[in-house]
Specification:
alpha/beta; Rossmann fold; 7-stranded parallel sheet; 6-stranded parallel sheet; 19 helices; 45% helix; 15% strand
């Protein structure tokens, strides 16, 4: 098949949550079909990866996206009755539209895969007998969560974007032959109940090493957080943890340290490095060693949609996890079996302290968590489901447990990716 793959951000390297997902999509499809890839580039450092994409695809077209300029276009689009999302990415007379028009004249595409709501209109403009839209998670719902934590005029703007984008998402779900979301929770969040039957769940996977050697130091335990540190939900999470939770943990376990690992820490995050017991590490080449050194991995997210890769990665190496119910919404884990959950600062601190001081409990949760992701979060299973949608086959969940367990492998791709994954 000839497949056109559209992404709002270059699908390499897999160092952010969305890029991790789009990378695996492209990798899977390109190994079985002929793929043309068109994407935006919002980080100048990513241009050096063009050759890696070209080695996988028939053709690649990348368009630079300047953040300030795109946000200005988004604001203008919002004032004009549209959405910020479309204004940031959609330019009818821009490089992306011209490239897709030219490719459509040269190639008969059998299917189009549009990754994220930002690329939905581009996908509809290309002639193909089969179109699939991967919304991943609902951006409209994410904007509403932003509004819940905002004040003043910006709160109203976020609400307006959420409402307008929600209308667009419903329009696109109806217009595409198939649409996907990452979890059942996201499907249930659709405000239009009649659209839920049009959605197929395609989740994320994780690579599980057959032999994990953790390097935890029980004398100086590490509480760790991994994620892109210029991403608002992550910044909010570590700030809340540092302000409200960490002092309680530090008082109970004075020798503990809190390590914040992830690319592009902003000024707000960098300031946390001045506080007692907190290390802002920044980007590392491979987060695997960091994650294996954590005594406890935390995901204190108050703003969260979709499926948290940081949680899957910690579980994959057998690290005990404490997370909020919002962070757990995309993963069918059970509190007390695979992890510990808490939503208020005092309870979150208590759960973390409990795992730091009761190593038997932490080890048990880690083992159960590792087994859980091995059985339930397999990239090959999820990407096969996506491929079936593109080819028009009936999609069957099948017996994922056996396939996932047989696919356990040692690889650095996901481990490296998590340093920037939301």
């Amino acid at each position: 098949m000839n497949i056109l793959f559209l992404a709002h951000r270059i699908p390499y390297p897999p160092n952010k949550g969305d890029k991790l997902r789009s990378f695996h999509m492209l990798e899977h499809l390109a190994s079985r079909h002929s793929v043309w890839c068109a994407a935006f580039v919002d980080d100048d450092r990513d241009w050096r990866h063009l050759d890696r994409l070209q080695a996988r695809c028939e053709k690649v077209h990348l368009v630079p996206l300047k953040r300030r300029r795109s946000l200005c276009r988004g604001a203008i689009r919002l004032l004009g009755g549209g959405t910020i999302t479309e204004g940031c990415y959609y330019r009818s007379n821009g490089d992306m539209a011209r490239c897709l028009s030219q490719w459509s004249q040269q190639v008969r595409f059998d299917a189009v895969l549009a990754f994220s709501s930002s690329m939905a209109r581009y996908g509809l403009a290309v002639d193909a007998p089969r179109r699939v839209l991967d919304l991943c998670d609902l951006d409209s719902a994410k904007w509403m969560e932003y509004a819940a934590h905002a004040f003043g005029p910006i709160k109203s703007l976020y609400r307006l974007e959420s409402h307008r984008l929600g209308v667009c998402e419903a329009e696109w779900i109806r217009a595409y032959d198939a649409a996907t979301l990452i979890t059942e929770h996201e499907v249930d969040s659709l405000p239009y109940a009649e659209l839920r039957d049009r959605i197929t769940i395609v989740g994320n996977g994780v690579h599980v090493s057959p032999d994990v050697k953790n390097t935890r130091d029980h004398a100086s335990p590490i509480v760790g957080f991994i994620g892109a540190m210029d991403y608002r939900p992550n910044v909010d999470a570590v700030q809340w943890f540092a302000d409200r939770i960490w002092p309680q943990i530090r008082a109970a376990v004075p020798q503990a340290r809190f390590r914040i690992v992830g690319r592009n820490p902003n000024r707000q995050v960098r300031r946390l490095d001045r506080r007692p017991g907190i290390d802002v590490v920044g980007e590392v080449a491979d987060v695997g060693p960091e994650c294996r050194a954590f005594s406890v991995s935390v995901a204190p997210l108050r703003i969260a949609r979709g499926l948290q890769n940081k949680v899957l990665e910690a579980m994959a190496v057998g690290t005990a996890v404490v997370l909020t119910s919002k962070a757990a919404a995309g993963v069918s884990v059970v509190d007390g079996v695979h992890c510990r959950m808490a939503d208020d600062a005092e309870s979150f601190a208590d759960r973390t302290i409990e795992l730091l001081t009761d190593r038997a409990m932490a080890d048990r949760l880690g083992r159960h968590a590792r087994k859980f992701v091995t059985r339930n979060h397999c990239w090959s299973t999820e990407m096969t489901r996506l491929e079936q949608l593109l080819t028009g086959q009936s999609v069957s969940s099948g017996d994922t447990a056996q396939e996932c367990e047989s696919s356990i492998t040692t690889t650095g791709v996901d481990a490296q990716a998590t340093a920037g994954a939301p």
